[in-house]
């Protein structure tokens, strides 16, 4: 498989279209051989597990967000999503990008001290709960826990805590609401942008910091790439 293929085709192995089934079945990952219950495979039966899906991409996101000095999460996300030969149109690579973009912008703004380890912690937590296709399968798009991981790390939320955890959960609930208004079909690019716009507002309300934004200037360049079809006029980032 080359990356060019992974990007423009559907199945990462053979390029055929993907089937989504309502009841999971036992499938073997074509890359690592792991057997697990899954709900998506290609028309010819290929399955790629979440660990193998976007392996190189995780490192690209991590290295870039550790390095950038931008305080604008939308700008960071656009730069990463612009690496179209590395970042697929759909998939939880887009959740990693949104998590990395937000935590990097918070760190670069400077009010909160965020270490490199905490940036990586946000990405690792996101990876645990961002699972391909689960936007539709459970109603939780990976970008919701991505935003939650950023606030949790800053607020130091944890199971035994009180307000820290409640605030984190309320952020995630808001993000789920924002994403729900943008479905039909799901578009990871739109979800990243809308979630980060909401997260910029929430960082002001919850953390009292002002992050930069350039929402008005964003024009989507992925219209032709969407395997389920672009929502066009229904999407704020479709500009003709
Ligand atoms: Zn295939
Ligand atoms: Zn695998």
Question: Concise description?
Answer:
With 240 residues, this protein is mainly α. The chain contains nine helices and two strands; from the N terminus they run αββαααααααα. Strands 1-2 form a two-stranded antiparallel ribbon.
Structural description of this entry:
The structure is a single chain. It is built from 9 helices and 2 strands; from the N terminus they run αββαααααααα. The chain has 240 residues and is mostly helical. It folds into 2 domains: 3-42, no CATH class; 55-234, no CATH class. Strands 1-2 form a two-stranded antiparallel ribbon. Strand 1 (18-28) and strand 2 form a beta hairpin. Helix 2 packs parallel to helix 4 and helix 7 runs parallel beside helix 9 (188-207). The chain starts with a helix and ends in a 33-residue tail after the last helix. Bound molecules: zinc ion (ZN) (2 copies). One zinc ion binds next to loops.
Q: How many domain units? A: 2
- Radius of gyration, Cα only, in angstroms? 17 Å
The share of residues in extended strands comes to 5-15%
Small ligands present: zinc ion
Summed over residues and divided by their number, the pLDDT gives a mean of: 93
- Order of helix and strand elements from N to C terminus: HEEHHHHHHHH
Helical percent range?
A: 40-55%
Instruction: Report the span from N to C terminus.
Output: 33 Å
Q: How are the strands of the largest sheet arranged?
A: 1-2
Largest sheet properties: 2 strands, antiparallel
Number of helices: 9
Let me know the number of strands. 2
Low-confidence stretches: 1-9
């Amino acid at each position: 498989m080359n990356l060019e293929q992974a990007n423009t085709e559907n199945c990462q192995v053979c390029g055929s279209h993907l089937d989504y089934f309502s009841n999971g079945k036992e499938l073997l990952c074509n890359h690592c051989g792991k057997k697990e219950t899954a709900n998506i495979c290609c028309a010819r039966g290929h399955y790629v597990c979440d660990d193998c899906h976007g392996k190189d991409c995780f490192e690209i996101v991590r290295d870039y967000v550790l390095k950038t000095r931008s305080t604008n999460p939308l700008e960071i996300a656009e730069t990463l999503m612009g690496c179209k030969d590395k970042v697929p149109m759909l998939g939880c690579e887009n959740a990693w990008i949104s998590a990395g973009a937000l935590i990097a912008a918070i760190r670069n703004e400077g009010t909160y001290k965020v270490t490199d380890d905490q940036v990586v912690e946000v990405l690792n937590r996101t990876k645990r709960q961002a699972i391909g296709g689960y936007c539709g399968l459970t109603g939780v798009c990976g970008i919701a826990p991505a935003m939650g991981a950023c606030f949790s790390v800053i607020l130091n939320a944890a199971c035994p805590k009180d307000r820290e955890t409640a605030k984190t959960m309320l952020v995630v609930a808001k993000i789920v609401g924002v994403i729900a208004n943008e479905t039909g079909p799901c578009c990871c690019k739109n979800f990243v942008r809308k979630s980060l716009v909401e997260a910029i507002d929430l960082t002001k309300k919850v953390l009292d910091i002002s992050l930069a934004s350039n929402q008005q200037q964003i024009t989507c360049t992925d219209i032709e790439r969407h395997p389920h079809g672009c929502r066009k006029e229904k999407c704020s980032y479709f500009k003709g």
